[in-house]
Amino acid sequence: MNAFVKTSLILSTLITYSSAVEIKDLSSAVNIAGKQRMFTQRLLKDYAMVGMENRFGKPDEDMKKVIVSFDDALKSLASFNKDEDTKKSLDEVSKLWDPIKKELQKKPTKKSASILQGELETLLKEANSATQLFSKQTGESSGEIINISGRQRMLSQKMASLYMLKVWGLGDDKFAQKMKDTMTLFKTSHKKLDKFEKNTPEIKKLLSKVKKSFMFFEFMGKSKSKFIPSLIYKKSNDILRDMNEVTALYVKSLKK
Questions:
Q1: Whether the predicted pLDDT of 17 surpasses 50
Q2: How high is the mean pLDDT of the chain?
Q3: Which of 122, 111, 192 lies closest to 152, judged by CA?
Q4: Residue 19 has pLDDT above 80, yes or no
Q5: Does residue 252 contact residue 220 with C-beta atoms inside 8 Å?
Q6: C-alpha–C-alpha distance, residues 59 and 200, integer Å
Q7: How many CB atoms lie within 10 A of CB 93?
Q8: Which is the most buried residue in 6, 105, 141, 220, by most CB within 10 A?
């Protein structure tokens, strides 16, 4: 078993089962809510891979697991939450999610992909609102750091999903601007995390790894070469894995 296959299995297990754990504090809620944002873009990335009939990383199996994870996380968040504004946001997430989940379980087509991209973007915005509301509930700067760290997971998947759609022949005239905006937000957010005064040596080491992985996407943005789906898939997973660990470390070290 090669290193990437091992990493994929570990990552798949991590993402699939961590959200099913009972949420015991607000810091954990911010982390789990933040994963919902990432799931929207990971699903789009998987959907495009399946549509292109590219089996690298087993995107069809990953998509099924992420659908279950999204459901589990939503139930956990709703059960934990006691805030009325956050409840309204979670209810809206659930309302948007139901038809998307049904579409994801059908055979991918280019026509459906274009519609799905817009629907997942709307779901992403609402999931982001829910995350920010949980972050606000913490009343601490630590909640915002966890929020920003967790958002990096989503941005890694958004960069990948945009490239996958382009490879599949669905890149629109706004592709360049969407990619630029996503990469800029990732870069500025990473700088904020780098400067956080409570970073542990372990967190600093992981952030350094992420910075190196992100250089791949910066290179891709400037390159005129044809994009390679399997390489994009791997690099986005590398960032996701490391930022998921960073976020978990923030939760552990900053919780009350």
A1: no
A2: 90
A3: 192
A4: no
A5: no
A6: 34
A7: 24
A8: 220
- Please state, in angstroms and rounded to a whole number, the distance separating the CA atoms of residues 129 and 172: 26
Residues in the chain: 256
Instruction: Say which residue the tokens 């999903």 belong to.
Output: 161
Q: HEC states along the chain?
A: CCHHHHHHHHHHHHHHHHCCCCCCCHHHHHHHHHHHHHHHHHHHHHHHHHHCCCCCCCHHHHHHHHHHHHHHHHHHHHHHCCCHHHHHHHHHHHHHHHHHHHHHCCCCCHHHHHHHHHHHHHHHHHHHHHHHHHHHHHCCHHHHHHHHHHHHHHHHHHHHHHHHHHHCCCCCCCHHHHHHHHHHHHHHHHHHHHHCCCCCHHHHHHHHHHHHHHHHHHHHHHCCCCCCHHHHHHHHHHHHHHHHHHHHHHHHHHCC
> Own/partner pairs for 174-181, CB < 8 Å, 24+ apart?
179/221, 180/221
